[in-house]
Specification:
Number of strands: 9
CATH class of the largest domain: Mainly Alpha
Structural class: alpha+beta
Number of helices: 13
Shape: elongated
Largest sheet: 4 strands, antiparallel
Strand content: 5-15%
Order of helices and strands: HHEEHHHHHHEEHHEHEEEHEH
Helix content: 40-55%
Distance between the termini: 21 Å
């Protein structure tokens, strides 16, 4: 499944279990509520759709009974979404219409031609409904940005301590940056090797002209790699080459290779200065995830939540 399609399929049920269900469930004779959150019902129909979407990557399983654990997880997710949207309403959190429009345009940009509208039709959701769900998702993100994330900080001492405690994670093996030319016959490779040994500075030009490998278009540049990468029996020859020297011909199932090393990086430990930004970002993500969980736990603790266990047990995709 294309990445864009999977992204949309994940979005479709994201808020289905709570979007506008509060008004619908209060109508006499309406769909049965599986749960009620602070007076706002969560519908069986919406949860059923979430269960179906959860099996979108497993064709033929839609008719199978959903495991109890999956039903409970879908319900818990829906309850969390209701609580977050209620909290956003209480705090007056809103999202400008232009931001929702921009998000919809970014989502639509993943699809060429009519594929976006075709997928919406397949999932039986209107563009207006998708836009409403996008608004709700952006509202939740803005709630976290305003109520949760400002309290999350990562100090310099925490970053340094994490680096010290995980020093071995920053050990890097010897690496080289190399170019290659790949051709179909040994004879052609030998001619190219001899030409490049006479004029090694022309390697990018020769790679663009003669190489059958995809990186030939960028002068044969393979980027930086460590010993044992790709096909070790082929690429490890680069670790025996001095910088700028041209290798002998190396055969592989894909043809005959000629290499040139352009840079060598010895084994060593990445410095704290180089690692600091990545560590800070990692710790910030982890702290934000914990803060989100704690915020939701607090909302749940104060909430009035009732669950119709029989309705949940009867739920099927």
């Amino acid at each position: 499944m294309p990445r864009g399609a999977r992204r949309l399929l994940l979005l479709l049920p994201l808020l289905a279990a709570c979007g506008r269900c509060g008004r619908a469930e209060r109508v006499a004779g309406g769909p049965r509520a599986v749960a009620v959150v602070n007076g706002e019902p969560v519908s069986a129909d919406a949860l059923r759709r979430s269960l179906r979407e959860g099996g979108a990557d497993a064709p033929g399983l839609e008719a199978e009974p959903a495991p109890a654990a999956l039903k409970r997880q879908v319900l818990d997710d829906a309850v969390d979404r209701v609580l977050l949207l209620q909290a956003a309403r209480e705090r007056g959190v809103t999202v400008p219409a232009e931001r929702v429009d921009q998000a919809l345009l970014r989502l639509r940009a993943d699809y060429p031609g009519t594929h976006f509208d075709d997928l919406l039709a397949q999932e039986k959701i209107s563009a207006a409904e998708l836009k409403a769900r996008l608004r709700e998702q952006l509202t939740v993100e803005r709630l976290f940005a305003g109520e949760v994330f400002p309290r999350v900080q990562v100090s310099d001492d925490e970053v340094q301590r994490w680096y010290d405690d995980h020093a071995a994670d920053f050990d890097e093996p010897e690496r080289v940056r190399a170019r290659q030319v790949v051709v179909r016959t040994r004879e052609e490779a030998a001619r190219i090797r001899d030409e490049l040994r006479r004029r090694p500075q022309t390697f990018p030009e020769v790679a663009k002209r003669a190489s059958i490998a995809p990186e030939g278009a960028r002068g044969g540049d393979l980027g930086t790699f460590s010993r044992g990468s790709g096909m070790p029996e082929v690429f490890d020859v680069c670790f025996k080459l001095p910088v700028n020297q041209v290798s002998d011909v190396v055969p592989s199932p894909y043809g005959f290779h000629v290499f040139q090393v352009t840079e060598r990086k010895p084994a060593g430990r990445r410095s704290f200065a180089d690692a600091r930004a990545g560590i800070r970002e990692r710790l910030l993500r982890e702290k934000r995830a914990r803060a989100q969980a704690e915020y939701l736990a607090a909302l749940r603790q104060r909430a009035r939540i009732t669950i119709d266990q029989k309705a949940l047990d009867a739920l099927a995709p």
